[in-house]
Design goal:
The complex is a heterodimer.
Chain A lengths: L12 H10 L2 E5 L6 H14 L3 E6 L4 H6 L12 E2 L11 E6 L2 H12 L3 H8 L2 H6 L6 H16 L4 E5 L8 H14 L1 H6 L3 H5 L4 H14 L2 H14 L2 H16 L3 E7 L3 H16 L4 E9 L8 H7 L5 H30 L5 E5 L8 H11 L1
Parallel strand pairs in A: 1-5, 1-6, 2-4, 2-5, 6-7, 7-8
Antiparallel strand pairs in A: 3-4
Helix pairs in contact in A: 2-17, 4-5, 4-7, 7-8, 8-13, 14-16
Chain B lengths: L1 E4 L5 H14 L3 E6 L6 H4 L10 E5 L5 E6 L2 H11 L4 H18 L3 H15 L5 E5 L6 H11 L7 H14 L5 E6 L3 H18 L2 E2 L2 E6 L10 H6 L7 H31 L4 E5 L8 H11 L4
Parallel strand pairs in B: 1-5, 1-6, 2-4, 2-5, 6-7, 6-8, 8-9
Antiparallel strand pairs in B: 3-4
Classes of the chains: A alpha/beta, B alpha/beta.
Chain lengths: 374, 300
Amino acid sequence: MSREKQGEAERPIASLEAVIRSSELILTCGPGGVGKTTTAAALGVAAARIGRKTVVVTVDPARRLADALGLDDGVASDEPHQVMGVTKRTTDGELWALMLDAEQTFDRLVREQSGSRKQAEAVLDNPVYQAISGSLSGAQEYMAVERLHQLHVSGDWDLVIVDTPPSRHAIDLLEAPDRLVGFLSHPVYRTLTVGQRTFAKITDAASSMFLWAVKRLAGPQIVEDTVEFFRSLANIEGGLRHRARQVSELLRGSETAFVVVSSPRAEAVGEAEHLLDAIADKKFPLGGLVVNLIHPMPEPLTDDDEALLAGIDTGPLGDQLEWHRELTSLANAERQELVDLKRLAGEAPVIELPLLNVDIHDVPGLVGLAERLV
Amino acid sequence: MVVAGKGGVGSSTVAAAAALAAAREGADVLFISVDGRPGMGPLLGGSEISDREQTLQRVPGGGRVRARTIPADQAFGDYLELKGVGGLLRRAASAASLPMIAAATPGLEHLLVLGKIKELEKERNADLIIVDAPPAGHAAPFLRSASGLSDVVKSGPVLDQASDVSEMLADPTRCKALLVALPEETPITEVIELADDLGGDIGIELLPFVVNACWPDRTGLDKTPAMAARSYKLKLSDSAKSALESAAAFGRSRLAQQREQIERLEKARSEPIVMLPRLATPRLGPDDLAALADALIPSH
């Protein structure tokens, strides 16, 4: 197996910087455990350092990273806080951070889309709404993009960066707005939300089945709340649909860039490849690929050295040789895993980052990572 | 046995290795992938895991590993059947209404899956059921779905189902949790949080922690290459010294971090710790899985 040259960072260094300079929205997505949140934060640091007023929306930051971003103890804080110590005094960029609160975002959406306060309260006060707003299947994903939209249209920010929620299929995020519209188009939902009189003589099998099944499963009292919830939601349905379409268009707009983050492990690479395919398929704009946690390639031993050291497999020198071989073969295998992944990134910039000796959990660490990224 | 850990720490792999280790001890093992990840099937010697049960591997001595996923809609159908609803009616009900019911009843999908697992456990479907839980972040809500549901649902069979599931989870003779981490700062912090969480209000008894992907302790890396060569009366070239040192420096720092993080876990929790070796490949094969099973339970 041929050894690659050192200094792979020679690839398009400027391009991810161009993405950070020109985009208004960046979404980082990828499999779990590859440093997605850290990458999102570092992109935010990089953007602030080139003078842009940037806000990073995190979903599930590890505690020490949350501390570094000034987010309290992992508690959701829906309003942005400024992160200090990121930029030099001479530039006017700023970095702000917030942690997604799916329920508050959902509440805000309902209020905005309701024709009146009364309509909004009918939804917000419903016990079923209160129970589901944080846990509706896909709600976190949808609320992440909804929050992105809210921040984008506020006009307060040059750049909004959203770190997507960990999900079993990262693709959930891309389909979240469509899923909400699909939910509202469901025949059961449609029948439930027609008027009371029609409701009384429902013949639609699916709907009566639905109510029957809910009664059967969860007891009769929840049926009333559920029907009431769907009816109150009907008042704002038009608004929700409209918003879902807007968000869906925004995600495909030229001001948006998706940054896929992966590691070189086969499982993560598989998920990232799937994600890159889906991004191309659904015509989302790809801003770049970041491959994190790559093992460093040791300097090679020359043939003469190998010959001199052949047969030594015990003692400290044996340890050193065995380790050198193991790390070299792992580093090579990882670079092989990345061949297809990098091809799928097409024209988009690819940034490769080494496995670092320490976790990044403070602002100087993020600044260091930002410098590697751009 | 519920296996859980944060995304990226290899908890599915550890779950598969545990299944293999148990089968080699003669057990009939049922491996359930809650997340529907199909990939552990080939690693265990079969095809991809689906909602149809398949036998992945038979082990000399009578043990075997079977596997399946449990999609929520299927669990719902089975549940209706159990409640005496059959045939066409059941299919209509489950296809049309699950998304709506699930939306209206938080945690219901999780509870249906756990309920199905409880049924399998009750009918003694296998000697050991291994549940590959969704990644942490999702693992706690998954396991808490039973207790959380009672906030919305005050009566009816769902509540009964929920209390049956809670009972199973809290009974150490029926259910235990195996938590997986990596020897790095954030995964260790998160596994400690998950352990506090699961042990606390859900009351699941914990098995020893598994710290996955540990570097073997190579004391020789503490010496400089020149010193290491001295005992062989060898004089290394400058290029050899530099090459070996470039690898050794990285190895030393990883080992130091690993020792520090394991110590931190030992201080925070009283459970024993099992260290699994890091295999020098980004893509695991069946032999690698056997090596991990050996590390969990040495083969005879």
